[in-house]
């Protein structure tokens, strides 16, 4: 009896690897379907032409099927996750619209310089012997330093947009930091806030950002809302 050449499993392995790699492509499911069809064709050909005295290993055949099934399940999982993320982002955007037109308090230290004017409020945990206010630009560069109020409780700071050399700076987002010390030199707890009206919601980054004057802040930076 004349026997045919025993089939090898290398083509099947290559096909499975190609299917796994295709999961990163936008049309991963379509590519997987094509690869699976090719896999079945190769498998059928191998079964038809296998050597009766050395049949194809059934364990290897089963492993290939399991591998394809796992890839398909992973693609479905990724697709479902993308759908959930998209739904969550849309819902977050809808929730953010409730801030439009509202006056909000921002607690991350950011303030909007608009028309050469920016306002902050800050709180001292106790009366201070000395207080220093520091304004930095969007790049973290210090543009202004000066003495602040020393009374315990809430204080305000208005900045005219000029640096320490008297140069007028461009409108934009600036951050205020306040440090205070007691008479004995010990530090005093401080907190900084600014206020403004939300005029827009920016969704270009995928996460809602509230537009207040010339700055954008995340929802997590909002401490209070007023009509």
Structure description:
Helices cover 32% and strands 32% of the residues. The protein has 227 residues and is of the alpha+beta class. It folds into two domains: 10-97; 100-226, Immunoglobulin-like, CATH 2.60.40. The strands form two sheets. Strands 1, 3, 6, 9, 10, 11 and 12 form a seven-stranded antiparallel beta sheet that branches. Strand 7 (172-181) and strand 8 (187-188) form a beta hairpin. Helix 2 (28-49) packs antiparallel against helix 3 (58-96). The protein is elongated and about 95 Å long.
Q: Give me the number of helical elements.
A: 3
Which second-level CATH architecture of the largest domain applies? Sandwich
In whole angstroms, the N-to-C terminal distance is 93 Å
Strand content is 25-35%
Number of distinct beta strands = 12
Run of helices and strands: HHHEEEEEEEEEEEE
CATH topology tier name of the largest domain: Immunoglobulin-like
Please give the share of residues in helix: 25-40%
Given the helix and strand composition, which structural class is it? alpha+beta
Largest sheet: 7 strands, antiparallel
Poorly predicted sequence stretches spanning 5 or more consecutive residues: 1-25
Radius of gyration: 32 Å
Which tags fit this structure?
single chain, alpha+beta, 227 residues, 3 helices, 2 domains, Immunoglobulin-like, five-stranded antiparallel β-sheet, elongated
What is the structure about, briefly put?
This protein has helices at residues 10-21, 28-49, 58-96; strands spanning 103-106, 110-113, 118-124, 130-136, 142-147, 153-159, 172-181, 187-188, 190-202, 209-212, 215-218, 222-226.
């Amino acid at each position: 009896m004349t026997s045919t050449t025993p089939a090898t499993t290398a083509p099947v392995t290559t096909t499975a690897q190609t299917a796994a790699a295709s999961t990163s492509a936008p049309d991963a499911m379509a590519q997987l379907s094509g690869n699976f069809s090719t896999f079945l064709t190769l498998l059928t050909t191998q079964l038809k032409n296998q050597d009766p005295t050395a049949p194809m290993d059934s364990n290897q055949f089963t492993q290939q099927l399991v591998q394809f099934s796992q890839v398909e399940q992973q693609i479905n999982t990724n697709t479902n996750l993308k759908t959930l993320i998209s739904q969550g982002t849309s819902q977050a955007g809808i929730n953010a619209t409730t801030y439009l037109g509202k006056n909000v308090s921002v607690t991350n230290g950011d303030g909007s310089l608009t028309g050469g004017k920016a306002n902050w409020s800050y709180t001292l945990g106790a009366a201070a012997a000395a207080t220093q206010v520091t304004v930095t630009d969007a790049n973290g560069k210090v543009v202004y330093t000066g003495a602040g109020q020393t009374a315990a409780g809430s204080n305000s700071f208005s900045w005219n947009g000029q640096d320490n050399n008297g140069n007028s700076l461009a409108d934009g987002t600036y951050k205020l930091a306040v440090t205070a010390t007691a008479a004995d030199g010990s530090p005093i707890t401080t907190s900084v806030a600014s206020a403004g009206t939300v005029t827009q919601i920016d969704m270009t980054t995928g996460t809602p950002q509230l537009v207040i004057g010339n700055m954008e802040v995340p929802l997590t930076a909002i401490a209070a809302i007023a009509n």
